[in-house]
Amino acid sequence: MKVDGGLAGGNLGAVAAHARELEQLGYDGALSAEVNHDPFLPLVIAAEHTERIELGTGIAVAFARNPMTLANVGWDLHSYSKGRAVIGLGSQIKAHIEKRFSMPWSHPAPRMRELVLAMRAIWACWNDGEPLRFEGDFYRHTLMTPFFEPGKNAYGSPKVRLAAVGKLMTEVAGEVADGLILHAFTTERYVREVTIPALQPGFDRGGRTRGDFEISAAVFIVMGEDDAEIAAARRETKERIAFYASTPAYRPVLELHGWGELQPELNALSKAGEWVAMGERITDDMLDAFAVVGAPEEIPKLILARYGDIVDRVLFYAPYQSDPERWARILADFKTG
């Protein structure tokens, strides 16, 4: 199982050193997330200062952009990194797409399918000389003149991974993407009973197999060296789980476990800004379902026991302050154990 590290993008001046550190520690990938900064800029810096590690967005908001802009940045990053780029995309939710990005929202799964296929058509035009004739329900790309064509990429096209929670988006990932990014708000049971079965129809439509595909999981980790650290980690992780659980689109994960009625309650609390109260609604059983909980030396074996046969790569997700040296030890144990 491969391990990815998060690449902090808030301070671009610190990215080079952080990327080098991730590579030296033995991480397989460095992921830049679109939260409050652009997700692609840090990867350009990371590409300049590393040689081996994969560089990906985890995630970039797909519907805040269009296939041509994504194809361009993907082409450039893949070329500059010498074939190490991975374009990780997520749909976000309607409110953010319409109210934060001022972009259209409709039928997210079919739209995402078209967006990826349009990107691939653009790359095929540039890399293989195929005429650009993509006409879909959401995107239309039929003009490419020599002046705007970057030419063949020596490293081919970057990989594309899609973030998905629901069945429809998961099927789309299986059909058109190179991998699936599991949202941190998932459980082992949901992955086994809902996600994996939902991939198969997509594989069938795309003429692909599980062997052609990578599943990545951001895994909540709760740990600490003493009772105070563990208590803080539990509290802050519960608050993050509650934040995700308040989202209507993620309710199916709760429903599978019989916790569906909690979602509207948490949603109401979120609108009132009651973030601490939201975390208090998350029980210990819920925490154990969403997070790996244990002493630092136990974390690698606990992750492998839970996801070792169904996930290809993981990202340690700890929404609290912790010692970086501890994560380095956990990674080393993970790689050797």
What does this structure look like?
The protein has 337 residues and is of the alpha/beta class. 48% of the residues lie in helices and 15% in strands. The protein has helices at 15-25, 41-49, 67-80, 94-100, 108-128, 167-176, 188-206, 227-245, 251-256, 262-271, 275-280, 284-290, 299-307, 324-336, and strands at residues 2-6, 29-32, 54-57, 60-61, 85-90, 134-135, 140-141, 159-164, 179-182, 214-222, 291-293, 313-317. The longest helix is centred in the middle third of the chain and has 21 residues, at 108-128.
Provide key terms for this protein:
14 helices, 12 strands, alpha/beta, globular, about 50% helix, single chain, eight-stranded parallel β-barrel, about 325 residues, two-stranded antiparallel ribbon
Q: Could you report the average pLDDT, rounded to the nearest whole number? A: 95
Which class do the helix and strand fractions yield?
A: alpha/beta
Strand content: 15-25%
User: Helicity range of the residues?
Assistant: 40-55%
Rg, Cα atoms, Å: 20 Å
State the order of secondary-structure elements, H for helix, E for strand: EHEHEEHEHHEEEHEHEHHHHHEHEH
Strand order across the largest sheet = 1-2-3-5-8-9-10-12
Gap between N and C termini, in Å?
Answer: 11 Å
User: What is the overall shape?
Assistant: globular
Unreliable parts: none
- How does the major sheet shape up? 8 strands, parallel, barrel
What is the tally of beta strands? Answer: 12
Annotation field: number of helices: 14
